[in-house]
Amino acid sequence: MNSEQVNGPRLVSNGQVQAEVNGRLGVITLHRAGSLNALSLEMVRDLTSCLLHWQADERVLAVLLRGAGREGKPPAFCAGGDIRFFHQAALAGDPRLEDFFTEEYALDHLVHTYPKPTLALMDGICMGGGMGLAQGCSLRVVTEHSRLAMPETQIGLFPDVGGGWFLARCPGHVGEYLALTGETLGAADAITFGLADLCHASATLPTLVARLADPTLIDAVALLERARGSGIPASLEKLALQREAIDSHFSRATLVDILASLSADASPWAQHTLAQLNKRSPLMMAVSLELVRRARHLTLAQDLRMERDLVRRCFHLRPGTASETVEGIRALVIDKDHQPRWNPTHVADVTPEMVAAHFTSPWPAHVHPLRSLE
């Protein structure tokens, strides 16, 4: 559907979001496959426009979100936000960077609170902003290709898009583990940890969409049951087998304590995890740990407002190239040297004051950009 389609939402992303009503089903396809369907500001605006339009459309019984495939390559639902844009905008002082995060977080809240059933087909890569969309859906479908993660500490950021809230609701201390390491989950672990609901074979997804689009369907409960009815069983994967170790290490009071606990454990899993953490931004790991633990006691709206404060601080407490996030993106995707110069370099040098500064809101409550979320 394009921006001129009659009786449809006006779309501005030049085809990077495609929307159609198929039977009783509103189908949204992220169509930026060459960039793993990473979200631009225009895509965020189109997604919001579609959802708001269909919210009041009596033809639409439910909404399905999926990612466009890549011929001959592994699929992707959505790899996250467009981090190259973040880097360029931060260095240029582009105000659209502020718009992106405000509007993306508001979109995530809209998905979580949507009055109609929503379904996410998390086939392939689903990370960062893709998780922000999918985790709010009524039904989260994974496949044998699914790779789910919140890898933000790799780029000197924190698990945003509601990540504090939904990671905090994983069992035990899995949320802290996923937030700090950015570890990737397969289908079975995602289901076990409460980040997905059921598994379908990737090849059966077109059939699933056709079943859900049956124009004779008039009941949302029946529609959801159709989606559940053709799932395939998933066996336990590697991370679920490490639950006891995850809870033991990641329940420790501080980041220093977590690393010390892992250092004292000679198991291959513990040493691999320690090596992962030693590559991450010490400061942003500490911020991420605090985020998940605070979010356990917050509503989704409160968490998103807190994350909006945090992301502003990530780009402005140390502006330009001094930002941990700008430096992390530089090392990963701009220069691709994979040698980020974190500041501080060592976990022991991260002070409580450094962490606390990120959690101080730059806005009075009455003018907070997400003040209207409930």
TrEMBL record:
Q: Which Gene Ontology molecular function entries are recorded, alphabetically?
A: 3-hydroxyisobutyryl-CoA hydrolase activity
Q: Which CDD domains match?
A: crotonase-like
* Keywords tagged on the record: Hydrolase
Q: Which residues form the Enoyl-CoA hydratase/isomerase domain?
A: 26-359
Origin: domain of life: Bacteria
Q: Which Pfam families match?
A: ECH_2
- Give GO terms for biological process: L-valine catabolic process
Name of the protein this chain belongs to: Enoyl-CoA hydratase/carnithine racemase
